[in-house]
Amino acid sequence: MESWEGRWPLVGRQSHLDSFRRELSAGHVRGWLVCGPAGAGKTRLTEEFLALAAADKRRTVKAVASRAAAQVPLGAIAHILPAGVDMTDPVQGFRAVAQSLAEASRPTVVLVDDLHLLDNSSAALLGQLLDSETIVLIGTARTGEQRSDVVEGLLQRGDHIRRTDLAHMVRDEVEELLQRVLKGPVSRHALHSLLSASDGNPLFLRELVLGAIAQGNLTLDRGVWDTSKEPLPVTPHLRDLIAGRIASSSPAARPLLETLACCRALSLFDATQLADRADLEHLERSGIVEISVQGARVSVTLAHPLYAEVIAADTPALRRYDIALRQAERVEAHGLRRRDDALHVASWLLAATGTAEPGLLLRAATIAMNSNDNEQAIELLSAVKADQHTCESRVLLGRALMHTGRLDQAEVVLSEADAQARDDSEKIIAATTRCTNLFWSDPDPAPAVAVCAAARATLSDQTAAQQLRLMEGAMLTVGGSPVPGLRILDDLPDTPPEDALDVWLATISAKTLGLTFVGRVERARALAEEARAAHEAVGEGRLLPHPVMQVAPLALSLMEQGRIGQAREVCLAAADGLRDTHAPVARQFLAYESGRAEWLAGRPVSARRWYAEGVATARAYRLDRVTRLHLSGLMACAALVGDVDSAASLVSDYEAVGTSGGLAGEESLGVAWLHAARGELSLARDLLHVAADTARDTGHLVSEALILTDIARLGAAKAVRERMTELSALGDGAFTAARARFVAALADKDPQCLMACSEELDGMGAGLLAAESAAAAANAWRRKGDTRKVTAATSRATRLAERCEGARTPILSGIVGAAEPLTGREQEIALLAASGKTSKAISQHLTLSVRTVDNHLQRIYLKLGVRSRTDLAAALNYESASGQP
Predict the structure, then answer these.
(1) What's the pLDDT score for residue 492?
(2) Which residue from 324, 611, 732, 754 could staple onto 352, CB 3.0 to 4.6 Å apart?
(3) Spatial strand order in the sheet of 297-302
């Protein structure tokens, strides 16, 4: 964290530095003004400008303007004036200053921070020095600040004054900066929390990170930096910075600022009742408030989310209550005409009085859930007294609790709703919500299915009963039994019915997943597109699943179609859509599909970040439904980049959670790749054979194909070739067919087919498999003695592997520039030796004699041109390190 304590890195500003260096060297510029909002990094950038000038052997001077210094003529630049100079005579004074600065062979470079605060005398003198080419002036100015005519004239010096306008950092820049200073990957959740709280302001971001680390809100967990679910702390320094900025506004504007801090947004009409237009315009120019237009409505809000926290903290509690009550009365007087008025009024009344009318609370909670603000919905509905709750309000509360991961609490509320339900409509909605919650609570789908079956027996309408039967099919499909589940879901229409939309949206995602599981990928993708479009058409919130639940099945089907890049893009876009939504269930579900897409793309570092986020979400909200899959992926990624110790440390956590049901067999990938990273290839293959049998028995054909491909990659292509060919015929997924061709080419050691597979897999976005296919081709051509083709294939393998974030696999380690490739047995012994195992330990592991192991090692040394196990580990790029990759 030293970088944050001192000079934090510049990110996204290199083009400005390059331009300044060129212009200064060519002598084309006499001044450079950097403008932007407070905290945008103006001072940091101009200090780098000054450092570049010093590196160019120029004399440099720095001055800082301020309101206090402006009270004294020449106060800001007094230290650069020659001793004894009399500035009461402007002509002689200027001549003396110019002569002093002209002693340097080239113009002196002068940096003035906060140039807009300069007094007129300083501005006039600097302007004269600028015109006489005695200095090169660098200045910073805050956007929106008023300045005197003399200062304005200084900044308007024609083409020789360059201007750079800095905006706040965008997400990619914030992510790059965080990863550089934290020296590790940052979870999407942490990235969004810090970006939202800082609004891309580099100064605010720095303080938030320092405060979060100091208070344990930002921690390194399983190799990924993540934030807790608690709000990010505001450091005293940051609070002082914001308070100072707010203090620059007129005291007459304080009632408006306090109301905005408590109520978040006001109409322009209400805002002008609290402050006159002149003050409002000054607040907007200063960047303290923002005025936005949406249709016919003009709203006023604070310009930064942290401003509200600081202002509210300085507002007495009793005054905050008065503000909330007064604003509620004001909006109620207009008749709650706008869509969000009920939500605002109910929230303000709760803040002021602790209660509100039950109907208003239900209406407000519905609006909150339609905006995916589950926390606010819980707050509103928890204010309803027990004897005033209806079945509808309890179901709504149960859904909000479920979506925020409070599954035990949700079960209590939903069981009450289930008992309170009277007609078929209420029974269906209570049962479907409750069974979904039970599904996430328990890896065994039986309790969820039982709730549906019990409710179905009480319904008088057979059409309604069929809806619950479909929910049973959905629970079975995603709970580990896709084949019988899909038989039930065959009755589910492809297009949403006008009624029972909640049930259709809840079950269509399960059907889409199930179709992909069993290899009917084309049908799954088309249905997933239909489901996503239908969900987007009706909006978000009260519907049983979050819209992201439609994205994850779509992403899975795209992966199996061989459109991995598109799957990654779909996942990233959906993750962005979750940024302002407190929906841990949806976030965890999406995190797995995102991690799986990155894993298939051959990007283990990126995949590791997603899996770590899924595990962190599970830990924070006790969501264990898919945790085992996340832990397996996390373990596999760590192993693939050589972080063996971290991978091994996850085994106990992995064994402590139950199976996930869906994607059966894939849960074994983590332990298998840990064995492989240790050089224990036979153990890895044995484990994967068992996993493949599990996938086959449960009908998870795409998972079986993935597992069998990994068996082939770990040295047993011939053993799985026939089954891979069968799988490619049983399903229509292009990715399974491509992997089947890859496995066949590996088994045949056919270099031409391997190179063709490399091209095909690369086109599908499977970069690591493409690299391995080229590497295997290089080894096959080496056996044939075709040096030219060996070089070409090796070059391609190396180029593809460089895109795979440091991934290490046995096939890639087998080329290492050797004149003769390692055999499968030699490869296994080499990896075991590189991991630190003795010849005796290797002999026991492989059931060989120690002499046989040593003979193999001698041949390995000759092939690789090494003399020791240490050299062998270096040649294979193998690390048994405990540090981060």
Answers:
(1) 92
(2) 324
(3) 265-267, 297-302, 289-294
